Amino acid sequence: MQSPESSSSAAPVLLNIGGTKYATTAETLTQREPDSMLAAMFSGRHTLPHHPTTGAVFVDRDGKHFRHILNWLRDGAIPALSESEHHQLLREAEYYQLLVIDSETLHCTFHSFIGF
């Protein structure tokens, strides 16, 4: 039998990111980037408002690039993107606090992802 903590981390988390619906787990949102905003939100330390009928947590951001954020959290992979999409994704990653900014070179990368 699973403990309440392990079963709740595997339970689906429904997200509404700017009108785009996503489903994942708290484990996905907290493990790869434990210092991120998403990890803080879904760590269990905070009470989040859920939509009364869907149960989704709403985040007021453009949902277009969140799929790339979510896939990064799942498997560490980011697809090849145009320069414009790259900048948009970096802006979203910064919002979710998934960036390391090297002040010496002013080069932004995802944690553990060199050359993005």
Automatic annotation (TrEMBL):
Question: Which GO biological process annotations does it have?
Answer: protein homooligomerization
Q: Which organism is it from?
A: Triticum urartu (Red wild einkorn)
What is this protein's name? Answer: BTB domain-containing protein
Gene, per the UniProt record: LOC125552680
Tell me which residues make up the BTB domain.
Answer: 11-112
Pathway per its UniProt entry is: Protein modification; protein ubiquitination
Quote the Pfam families the UniProt record gives.
BTB_2 (PF02214)
SMART domains referenced in this protein's UniProt entry, alphabetically: BTB
Q: Which portions of this protein are annotated as coiled-coil regions?
A: none
Q: What is the lineage of its organism?
A: Eukaryota, Viridiplantae, Streptophyta, Embryophyta, Tracheophyta
